[in-house]
Design a protein that fits this description.
single chain; 360 residues; alpha/beta; 6-stranded parallel sheet; 4-stranded mixed sheet; 15 helices; 47% helix; globular
């Protein structure tokens, strides 16, 4: 029986994790739940699962307190955005395994996070469907046998839009994702391909591949979650229905592969298509490759500028194409400095946000 502490329990990742626990009570128990401001939902869930809980808006130290009190076997970090970085640090400080759905932990502070995990002998298990697939494929095939990583992208709701059509995109249109049900910020990121850009940076760091060895292919059905190309040129992929319970369960059970309640994928009656990403219409993906290649603090600036620009778009302060224009302008500054502490990371993050807000 694994004890699980869930950060962001009312969001998409948290909700799916709780569904797994409900369906597999013989394998998992929720020992603690954390939300940010959803007090009523948190109270109801804590009562249902008979576990401790905390609200970070009222008690920023509640994550550390809950780890100390409940002694979880693994913590699921489903907190969205840069707010998820310090919780990841808190988990690893305690030497607890981290099931990580928060991209920003890796994008903003990977060298520091990796050192912390190694020092405290804690494992980081990716929960993004793409990185979960890559993790399982590299574990089975062996990193030394792999020539490149291939990440799939749904292409978002505007995959076939012209630049003129993109200039007229509304917030409600951008929030209508064709495949996945996710939070507002990540849904906009999927529409601009910034989410795929963040995943490229994440893949480079998690699996220690250079950016030129990480490819992106648009796959609207979201059934093939990622692939690896081996040294002999062959491709191996992971296939399942687009359901986040699969990668979450993989992280919770690793290194075991267990039977479960999820419906097996039916190979029949599916048509799978693959396309090149349209970099000219969706430049956020190209900017992420650039940031990954340059190193320094470029990935911090990319993430911060994108977060601010997305919030401005959601607030109808800027247009959809302006998100990329703003990020491009921020990346044109000098971000060669490399922070050697978490404080340094947040100092650079704040600098990028200040520049971005001025541009907005």
């Amino acid at each position: 029986m694994k004890k699980i502490l869930i950060l962001g329990c009312t969001g998409s990742i948290g909700t799916n994790t709780l569904s797994i626990i409900r369906n597999m009570p013989e394998s998992f128990r929720a020992c603690g739940l954390v939300a940010h401001t959803s007090r009523d939902r948190l109270t109801g869930l804590a009562a249902e699962f008979n576990c401790r809980s905390g609200l970070t808006a009222e008690d920023p130290d509640c994550i550390k307190r809950l780890i100390d009190e409940t002694k979880p076997d693994i913590v699921v970090n489903g907190i969205a955005g840069s707010d998820g970085l310090l919780p990841s640090k808190t988990v690893l400080d305690a030497g607890v395994d981290l099931a990580l759905a928060n991209k920003e932990t890796v994008v903003m502070a990977w060298p520091l996070i990796r050192q912390l995990a190694e020092r405290n002998k804690a494992r980081i298990l990716p929960v993004d469907s793409e990185h979960s697939a890559l993790f399982n494929l590299t574990e089975k095939i062996g990193k030394n046998n792999i020539a490149e990583l291939v990440i799939t992208a749904s292409g978002g709701p505007f995959r076939e839009y012209s630049k003129e059509q993109l200039s007229q995109v509304t917030v409600s249109q951008a929030l209508n994702h064709p495949t996945w049900k996710m939070g507002r910020k990540i849904t906009i990121d999927s529409a601009t391909l910034a989410n795929k850009g963040l995943e490229v940076i994440e893949a480079c760091r998690l699996f220690d591949f250079s950016a030129d060895k990480v490819k992106v292919v648009v796959h609207p059905q979201s059934i093939v979650h990622s692939l690896v190309r081996t040294n002999d040129g062959m491709l191996y992929g992971q296939i399942s229905d687009p359901d986040m319970k699969h990668p979450i369960l993989s992280a919770l059970t690793w290194p075991d592969v267990s039977t479960n309640f999820l419906k097996p994928f039916n190979l029949f009656d599916h048509t799978l298509t693959f396309f090149h990403p349209r970099i000219d219409a969706f430049p956020m993906l190209a900017y992420a490759y650039e940031a990954a290649q340059k190193g320094g603090s470029y990935t911090i600036a990319y993430n911060a500028a994108n977060e601010c620009a997305v919030q401005a778009f959601l607030g109808e302060r800027i247009s959809f194409p302006a998100i990329a224009h703003i990020v491009r302008t921020v990346l044109d500054k000098d971000w060669t400095m490399l922070p050697d502490s978490f404080k340094g990371v947040f100092d650079i993050d704040q600098k990028a946000r200040t520049i971005t807000e001025q541009l907005i």
